[in-house]
Design a protein that fits this description.
The chain has a domain of 204 residues. It contains 20 helices and 3 strands. 59% of the residues are buried.
């Protein structure tokens, strides 16, 4: 039994972000171009305030807010901190490149609105709020993908939009079907109505609803947009699109499985397990022979979401699934953003060979790249190593040892294409000098790589904090 809370302070991180976005729109309309950086500073302050508010609220008992539509529990708190921390890193990545840009303030506002949508998805406890969060996270994302207004960016935005519109319609269709099956849209009502509904109807609603969630996560079959959107957009936008929405989508998927579908006869665990295996395998196979670093990271993102889906599949089946997913998400966010920060720091290096001899020119940047890429392969003591280990354990604990075996094989196979990038960077002589190295993204890369290692070292006590009941 959870308490009800109609106090707007229950949504303080979201309120801070929305307020900063509105103020940013107003400030951007009259500030001179060379001072629009203050809108970015306001966005960073909102993110920092939201992280503090989420951390303070985290130890409290699980509760529901606003008619049980929004949950405040360990999943929401962890997602808030991870999402807002990721947004802070993206703001740091993009600040220098946008200085005095004619649409600088609009970029910061779009970034905040997309982040706000992801936060609503992570805590949504009602299908209507989940759909609203999906739309709020998607529409600004389309604009961000095409923000540069060049040909690759426009193509990326159009593909992202069309695929998102398709899966958005599927998601709304699934919500409609589940409303018919469970006689409600709120999770507390559906948790009692769906087990008594026809299995075929519930399964149809589940499959359609998952369409939107998997699109935001970049998982099979909603993965088509990822490579082109990542390659066509700027590095900060690509880092955002492949990290922040994924956190909320997977948190939402876990909540759906734990509260709704694990209580029915619908094939939640088998379906998610098959999609997890398909995502990690397809992503790895497609990444094997990529030479463009952004496309390589894009396919790496698809494979990583396969591993992240493992604990989501075990919702209601394993007692360690929740802490595995939340810790893995935090480690993945740091590691993925760190890799994109290296790409952003070397804007002229687009091919793997362009990184040859990087260790001789920028040793700290080469080490950061190696730490992030090896972290994605599950190399200790990075945070992803501990998170993936917990995910494997959750799969075995939930009776899906075959999924852990498939994930292990894919992890070993992924070492090939990560080493194809690391090897030139840490060996050999540079063929030509670097045209330009950006200092701010380099600092972000150092910080993300170091934080990934630190989080992996101190991860044991944090795992216990991430455990706890969901709001019901």
């Amino acid at each position: 039994m959870t308490g009800m809370n109609e106090n707007p302070a229950a949504l303080l991180p979201e309120v801070l972000l929305a307020t900063a976005a509105v103020l940013g729109l107003l400030l951007g309309s009259w500030l001179p171009r060379h001072r629009q950086w203050t809108v970015g500073l306001l966005a960073a302050a909102a993110c920092a305030g939201g992280i503090a508010a989420a951390a303070i609220a985290a130890p409290g008992a699980p509760a529901s807010a606003f008619g049980e539509a929004f949950a405040i529990d360990p999943v929401t708190s962890a997602a808030r901190i991870t999402v807002l921390g990721g947004c802070l890193l993206v703001l740091a990545l993009s600040g220098g490149a946008l200085r005095a840009h004619p649409r600088e303030s609009e970029f910061y506002v779009l970034l905040q609105l997309a982040t706000l949508g992801t936060l609503m998805m992570a805590g949504a406890q009602d299908l209507l709020l989940l759909a609203a969060g999906y739309l709020l996270a998607s529409v600004p994302g389309y604009a961000l993908a095409g923000f540069r207004k060049d040909t690759p960016g426009t193509e990326a935005a159009l593909e992202y939009y069309f695929v998102g519109a398709l899966f958005g319609v599927l998601m709304l269709t699934g919500a409609t079907v589940l409303y018919a099956a469970g006689r409600g849209t709120g999770y507390p009502v559906l948790s009692t109505g769906l087990p008594r509904a026809p299995v075929v109807l519930v399964t149809a609603g589940l499959v359609a609803l998952l369409g939107g969630v998997l699109f935001k996560a970049g998982a099979v079959p909603g993965h088509f947009w990822v490579p082109d959107a990542v390659q066509g957009s700027s590095a900060p936008v690509a880092a955002f699109l492949t990290t922040v929405p994924k956190i909320s989508a997977l948190a939402a998927a876990y909540r759906l499985g734990e509260l709704l579908f694990s209580r029915t006869d619908a094939p939640w665990a088998p379906l998610i397990a098959v999609l997890a295996a398909a995502s990690m395998t397809l992503g790895n196979l497609a990444a094997f022979f990529q030479r463009d670093v952004k496309r390589l990271l894009a396919y790496s993102v698809i494979s990583q979401v396969g591993y992240l889906l493992m604990p989501a599949a075990m919702a209601g089946r394993s007692g360690i699934a929740q802490q595995a997913l939340l810790f893995y998400l935090a480690g993945y966010a740091l590691t993925n953003l760190g890799a994109f920060a290296v790409v952003r720091a070397l804007p002229g290096a687009t091919d793997i060979e362009d990184y040859r001899g990087l260790v001789r020119r920028r040793p700290a940047l080469a080490v950061s790249l190696a730490v992030c890429l090896l972290g994605l392969v599950e190399t200790p003591p990075t945070a992803v190593f501990l998170g993936k280990l917990e995910a494997f354990s959750a799969a075995v604990d939930g009776g899906y040892a075959w999924l852990a075996v498939v994930a292990t094989v894919n992890t070993v196979a992924s070492l090939f294409y990560y080493l194809r990038w690391i090897a030139p960077a840490v060996s050999g002589r540079p063929q030509e000098p670097l045209s330009r190295v950006s200092n701010r993204p380099s600092t972000v890369a150092y910080a993300a790589a170091a934080a990934s290692v630190v989080l992996g070292v101190v991860g044991g006590p944090l795992l216990a904090v991430l455990d706890g009941p969901l709001a019901r």
